[in-house]
Structure formats: C-alpha cells, structure tokens
Amino acid sequence: MSSLSRELVFLILQFLEEEKFKESVHKLEKESGFYFNMKYFEEKVLAGEWDEVEKYLAGFTKVDDNRYSMKIFFEIRKQKYLEALDRQDKAKGVEILVSDLKVFSTFNEELYKEITQLLTLNDFRDNEQLSKYGDTKTARGIMLVELKKLIEANPLFRDKLAFPTLKSSRLRTLINQSLNWQHQLCKNPRPNPDIKTLFTDHTCSPTNGPLAPAPVNLPVAAVAKPAAYTPLGAHGPFPATGAAANTSALASWMANTSASSSVQASVVTASSIPIPQNQVPVVKRPRTPPTALGIVDYQNPDHELIKRLRPAQSVEEVTYPASRQQASWSLEYLPRTVAFSLHLGSTVMSMDFHPSHHTLLLVGSVNGEITLWELISRERLFSKPFKIWDMAACSLQFQDASISVTRVAWSPDGNFVGAAFNKHLIHLYAYNGPNDLRQHLEIDAHVGGVNDLAFAHPNKQLCVVTCGDDKLIKVWDLKGRRLFNFEGHEAPVYNICPHHKENIQFIFSTAIDGKIKAWLYDNMGSRVDYNAPGRWCTTMLYSTDGSRLFSCGTSKDGDSYLVEWNESEGSIKRSFVGFRNKSAGVVQFDTTQNHFLAAGDDGQIKFWDMENINVLASTDADGGLQTLPRLRFNREGNLLAVSTADNGFKILANAAGLRSLRAVETHSFEATRSPMESAAIKVSGASSIANASPVNCKVERNSPVNGVDPMNRSIEKPRTVDDVIDKTKPWQLAEIVDPSECRLVTLPESADTSSKVVRLLYTNSGVGMLALGANGIQKLWKWPRNEQNPSGKATANVVPQHWQPNSGLLMTNDVSGVNLEEAVPCIALSKNDSYVMSATGGKVSLFNMMTFKVMTTFMSPPPASTFLAFHPQDNNIIAIGMEDSTIHIYNVRVDEVKSKLKGHQKRVTGLAFSTILNILVSSGADAQLCIWSIDTWEKRKSVAIQIPAGKSPTGDTRVQFHSDQTRLLVIHETQLAMYDASKMERIRQWVPQDAISAPISYAAYSCNSQLIYATFCDGNIGVFDADSLRLRCRIAPSVYNGSQTVYPLVVATHPLDPNQLALGLTDGSVKVIEPTESEGKWGTSPPVDNGVLNGRTTSSSNTSNHTPDQMQR
C-alpha cells in the first residue's frame, strides 16, 4: 500500500474516533495493522479481557513472528493461567495449559514442565519465583509494564505506536477543499450551491447568466484559484509503489537491517505532501528481546529479562533502558583531564587525528596555515602556510582574498591530507611520514567558499568529496578529475557526510537552510529531503562503527540541537538536552567509542551517553576555551583536542591517553636521521613513526611549555632525565625475567591440567575475560568495580571473580562423538558481549552470556567448524571456516548458509574482515591466504605465505587486520609477516631466532595496533613494534610460570589498554600481565636500522631479524 493510502487510513481512523464509532475504530486499527492503540490495549489488559487482547494483537503480529511476539503472547497466556489457578479453577487452568501454553513447550520444555507443576500446588505462590505475586490487579499492572516494553522493542510495531499529529476533522477539510475546487471548475458556478452528494463530482446547473463563484456552504480552508491546481494525473493521488522507484535503492540501504517487518518504513522523500517535523513519529530504538519464557519478577517490573528465545531471529543485541548495564562504561572512559596546551598564534578552525597513529594531530587555522603535531613530543612536525600552487589557474578576485582553513581531514588510510579553504580551493597532500608531506593536488573546486571536505570510497576508489557556497556537492578523484556534480540544494551546502551501508555508498549533505539531502553516486538527484532541527547550520556524523547517525546544529536564533536519527524513516529517534539557551555561533560536536557524544558549548565540553538524553558530564578544561570550542577525538577515544580562546588548543586525556603521551620514545634518534635513512622505513606509503607508540606512555598533567615563541615552527618539548639518558645511551632490548618487574594476576579457578586453554577473549567492554578449554567448556571472569578498581576494567591489580549464573550452568560445547585431541576449537563474541558462539569439534552453540543457556545450535558435523567470525556490519551474518577447507557464510536469522566459499586445500584456521577494503581474508593449514569480496563472496586472489627455508608449511595460519583495516598481520609458527592487503604484497617478515627461536604459538595486535604480542612454544613472550616488526621487549617464562613444560597457547589483548595482555596456558590457567605502573609500557621502540643492512640481518642480536620486503615505496 502506498504512503498516501496509508495516510488515508489514518484520516478515516480520526473520523471514526470523532464520530464515536469506537468498535469500528479498533477494528480498522486491527485490520489495517497501521496503528496500535496502546491505550485501548491497556484497557483490555487491565480488564482481563484476554480474548479481545489476543484478537487485537493478531492484527499486528502472530505468536511465531519473532521472539518479541512470542514473549508477548506467553506473558498474556501465563497471566491468564495464573488467574485461573488463583480462582482455584483447575479445569480452566488445564484448558489454558493445553490449548494456549503448549505451543511454547517446543522452545522451553523445562519451563513448560515447571508451569504444569503449578497445578499440583494449593497456592502457586508456594513456588519461589511466584512468591511475590500479589493480587490480580497488581499482577496485571506489572505485566502491562512488561508488555509495553516488549511491544516498543518489537520491530513489527516500530512505526505503529504513534498516531500522526492531525488538525481536527482533517478528512472533512480535505473533502471541503475538493468540493471548492470542483465548484471553481464549474462552467456556470452558482452562489451558495447546495451540495447533496459526495458520490459524484459537483457541477452547477446552467443559469440565465454567469455568476461569480461562491464557496461551498461547508467550513473550508483557503481555496486556491483554478490555475493553481495541477491536474490530478500529475500527482496521482494514491501512486503505485513503483512510482517511487528512484528512492527504492536509498530506502534499502537506509532500512534497519535487523528489522523484519513486512511493512518496512521507507525514506521520507520530497513528495507533494510534505510531512511537518512535528508529525514525524518518534520511534524508539529497537531493544533487546527476551531469551527465555521466564516468569516475571512481580516485585520489580523492570527486572532483567533473559534474552534470546529461538534461533531463527536476529542476534543483534540491544537493551531495555530500565535494565541497561552501565557497569561496562564509566566517566573514566571520557578524556577530561588536561594533559597540556599548545599555542598556534592563529584561531583553530578544524582538527583531525591520524586514523592509525593516534597521537598525530592535524590542525587548520584561520590564517590558512596547516600544521601537524606529534602530541607525545609536542613537536610541530611541519607547517604549511597557505599559498596558491598554480596562480595562473585562479581568479584575480581570489588572489587578493584573505584565506582561512574551513576543514582539514585525513584519508581513511592515513596516506593523504585534505584541506578546504574559504575561497574556491582545496589542497591535497601526500603523507609519507612525519618529515615527508608533499603537495599532491590543488583544485579550484567551488565558486565562493569550500565549506567541507571528506574522503570516500565510491566504487572502491579513494575520492574527495567537497561542498561549497555555490550550493553544489562535487566528487573528485585523486588526479583532480570531477566524477560527480550533485545539484539540488537551494542554499550554500554546509556539511557532507559520506558513508556506506553494506555495499551501498552514499553522501548525506546539509545546507544552511536546514535541508538534509542524501545522494547516491549517480546522476539521479537527491533521494532524501527533510529538515534538520533548527533549520540552519547542521553537521552530521556517524558513530565510530557506522551504525548510528547523529546531527548537531544551531538555529539562527541561537538554539542548539543534538539528535540521533532513525535512518529508515527520516525521523528523530532521540533529542539530547543540556545546551545553554542561546549561542552566538554554531555548536560543534564529535562521537567516540560507539558510546559517547561531545559538544562544545558555553566555554565547556559537554558529554552525553548515546542512550541518555541528559548531559553525562562536562568540563571547562581548566578554563580558556572558546565560547563554542571546536573539538575532535582520536580514533581510540582516549584523547580529545579542543580549541582555546588564545589561538591554540588543549589536549584532554583519560588514563590510557595520559599513558600514551609519556614522552620517553627515541625522538632524538628520528630527529637526527638523514632524509635517505628516513625514506628507508616507509611502508606502503603509510606513515611509519617507529619511535612514537601512541598509547605506551604517560605525561605530566599541565606540563608547561616554557620560553617558546608562539610563532615558532617547532615547539620544544619539556626535557626530562629520561630524554637525556635516551640520547646518550645505546638502545637495549627490555627483558622482563622476574615477576617483580611487572604486574601479574592469575585468574581464580582457571588451573585445570586436564584441559589446556585453547582460545581466549577479552569482552569488548574490557571488564571480563572468556576462556575456551580443550574440553569444550567456557569460563567467564569479571572484574569488580570497587575503590581499588573504580573503572571496573580488567587489571592485574585486582583478582577478578569467576562468574557463573545462579543456575550454576556451564557453557559447554557439544562434544558428543568428538575426539577432543583432534578437535579444533573456535569462538566468537558479539560486539555487545551478549552472545558467544563457539564449537569444539561438534555443533556450533550460541550461548547467552547472562544465563549461559544454549539458545540454539547449528552446523552439525561433518565437516566440523574450525573458525568463527561475525560480519562487522551485521551480527546475523557469520563466516564459518570448516574442517573440509570451505567457508560457510551463514545467516543466523533465517538459519541458512547463504554462500559456500572454496579456495583452500586444508582446514580454515583464520578469518578477518576489512570494511575499508570490503574483503574477507581467510587463512588455512595449507599456508594459503585467500581474499574474498564481501559484496559477492567471490574469490579475488590467493597467496601462499613464504615459508623460511628448511621449514615445513604445516600448522595453523592466522590473520588479523591492523586498525587501519589495510595492513594485515599473518601469524604462522615459522614467522610473523605484514601484508598490504589492498595488493596482498608482503611488506615485512620476522622469523624466530637467537634468544627467541622456538615456534610461534600465537600472536595478536594491541588494541591500538602499535604493538604485537607473540607467544612461543618455549614459554617466551615477545613484544614487537608493529610498524617495524622489531622486538622491543622479551618476557621470560620465569615471570609467570615455574614449569619448563608449560607455555602459552594463546594470547589476548585488552580492547582499551594497549599494554595489557592475557595468556592462556597449557596447564589450563589464565594470567593477566601488565607493565609496572612506573614504567607504563613494554620497553621502547628499537632504532629502525638496528642490525639491518640492505634488508638482511648483519647482527646476531636477538632484537630483530626482520626482512623489509619493500624498503622504499
């Protein structure tokens, strides 16, 4: 049904309500399925009219539509059953049990048995779980609260809970307007015509002479002249669905992929009937469904619901606001501590952190200057004052204009810098390292100012997107050719936000008239047209993982708006509050960690939790900020740059950020390197700052910068004793050989000599640890939040708790008929830590992390599953590596294998997704790497890893992407290797030798991809500099273990702290290790040319034997 037909139903509903046709109203609501009348539903539930309740629900959902629906019907029928028992009507109870509740036994047989046993009790309150059940009225009220939550969370009700805001008697008004229009078209219009029917068009009978037209004698709105009416055919009053074909593509990518509603809301388009902003329903974010048909806690209506009911639905996790677990997040995650201030001499206009080197900050100023800062050393690495590169190509009026930067931005791979200016131009620089920024391209892009610039990947080609005062949006390739020119805005374009959903690339844009539009990379025009709150300057941003869309802007009157959007409907999902009443400019904002928002307002930085509309915290950064400060988070979210009123910026940090700023790396070594030496360390055109590991150090808070000319091109960093020592003494490998030289904790109840730890994961929130043993049993530990550990994060300072649900259940894989000695265990954790999927030679089991219950099993062997990976953009899609060398792309929601990939010769042992390159990389026991397109699942390429001479190409090969999603770490027992995944060319290789010569058992990147932790079969642990693959620290087995036969099989790295690692050992124990608090990191980066000449090792030093496959690129 078209959108206009749907709106007609709403008009009829309003008419029936006004005419008091109560039964007809609710019957039409039910039969159309367009509007769920929650008030009517509440009345029937509280009255206990269960048959009517179910009949009304049946118009919107069936019992088996999804897990939300099943829970709704279960709660109703359970209440109906309990009321029968409370009346001592056992016969009715048996009838309900057999006819109504039996359907649920298929999904939870134990619960059905427990409900059946209630028949044997004189009072069902004797059951412990029902002991708090009060009287019937109270129980219905508590259940109603639960039902409303479930209905609001159910995707099938997503756009059906809010009735549009309509003026009274809207249908009558439209009819009157139509009659007036018909009367205006009469050849002989009569005054005061007598309208007797609506069944036929109105005409006035002929008279003796022409008379002036008179309005119809019904109350009407203003009537337009006949010439103002477009023929009906032009609009088509109720157009067919196909009429909106040009928006269908956009509607598909804007639709919520987890929704399964048969009535999927489409994008709000520029139709002939614009929808006022106040008439767009505010749809609540989908929330987590329940897992089990449990019994409601009648003492607390907002009890924790067990999630996940059956396998055929989405495993995407969202939570009820009332039971949202906040323990995983705290204010300590926010960078609010002032680390230091730097002065530029010119007002900061734009800032951007490097995408992988998280302490490199790009700054654009009002005087047109671009600077790059290394925040560890507080050095200005380069400065580029504005100048026109090709004067002949620019207009005379431009040459004399004062120039300001409007936007600076890094490309996603960190290889290019873009700068937009307030007059005509953009500049692109090629970035090849801290001392190598080269002019790449100058484009006279727009007439007037260039207001924004961003990088995008249409058709897998890196491009630059710009917008300007000329009301245009343009897309350029890196050779300066214009690929697209988007017209449609009626005011200067203020902001652009390129993004992609699955394989659909698009651009959001906002103009200073408050219009938001969306464009595909074609010439079909805008697919979306709706208004931003405030209807003036608005910026749009996605969350870090690209799943949630936000905008922030200010009206001409100074009112600021920060909102989250429902993309599938073009409606506002959530409006955040906390801005001061009036602003003199435009508020700027940013997002971080997929959890927080920050905006500059009233000389402060204000923070919000994305799930709460109220301000979470604020800081004035010790004063001195601009009234509306500009701000930018680094990718990790542990540093925040904010602009100051004295023409500079401050760096705010959390605890991890402060560690990253500790200036003890060998900057002096790099400073004295010749240009030729520096060139030798470039890798694939990406920045390589071997001496700057962004999260390995600490900084003195508010360290002064003394005696520095503000206009000086290089700011001297504060000197410390360590600086002097580092300059005078030769570099040495850090060796940790005693437990006192680090911090160490053994997880309780982890030692099990009968089952070695074969897989190990931190929870994504960083507060827990999950271990899978060779016996198929998983264990979970959680760190308590207390005075000793206020953040509640994993730490070696506090012993965690071995966590189990009250039921005492264990998370145990299906191992029936499995030879555990030959099984290849595998495990994957959902992004939200709610589900874990694992297998140990048998079927894959999906566990609920709160209850440890098995929600479903699938993929029965043979062949057995050997590796699991969630699709990064859809938790319902899982890539499963198999024993028979294939890879299955499995959709959990529909319980179906969508694709089967064939390319390996032996079992699959590793899988890694890159959303930047749009590929899946697989590795196998055949020492092969295969590259697959995420779009088509076709194989693009296969590469054999290069096994060192004399070594066998046997054993598992694993893969992991760098945080830049381009460099790929390949782990084999014979080597660590770094590949450029865009070309699948090997960049570097490290082979075990000397002090660490045993085979590699496992390796993994630190959370910021600056370090690599590798474990070895002799018990040693190596900490490598990720960019150079050089060993910087060795942790001896004597640190964590006294036995020579015990060694780590697996290493896991903390998701937020780059210096914390965990080991899973062959004796079944799990250890967490951190450097001492005084050190704060594992050694220092070795000099880049240490022991290497022409790509070969000339020293027997155990620091490195890496081979740079491409010394210069």
Automatic annotation (TrEMBL):
Pfam families from the UniProt entry: LisH_TPL, TPR1-like_2nd, WD40, zf_topless
Region entry Disordered, spans: 1076-1113
SMART domains found in the cross-reference section: CTLH, LisH, WD40
Segments of skewed composition (Low complexity): 1097-1107
Ranges occupied by WD repeats: 443-479, 587-618, 901-942
Keyword Transcription regulation: no
CTLH domain boundaries: 34-92
UniProt-listed Gene3D superfamilies: YVTN repeat-like/Quinoprotein amine dehydrogenase
Alphabetical list of InterPro entries matching this protein: CTLH_C, LisH, Quinoprotein_ADH-like_sf, Topless_fam, Topless_Znf, TPL_SMU1_LisH-like, TPR1-like_2nd, WD40/YVTN_repeat-like_dom_sf
Keywords: Repeat, WD repeat
PANTHER family recorded: TOPLESS-RELATED PROTEIN 1-RELATED (PTHR44083), TOPLESS-RELATED PROTEIN 3 (PTHR44083:SF2)
Protein name, per record: CTLH domain-containing protein
Taxonomic source organism: Salix suchowensis
Source species taxonomy: Eukaryota, Viridiplantae, Streptophyta, Embryophyta, Tracheophyta
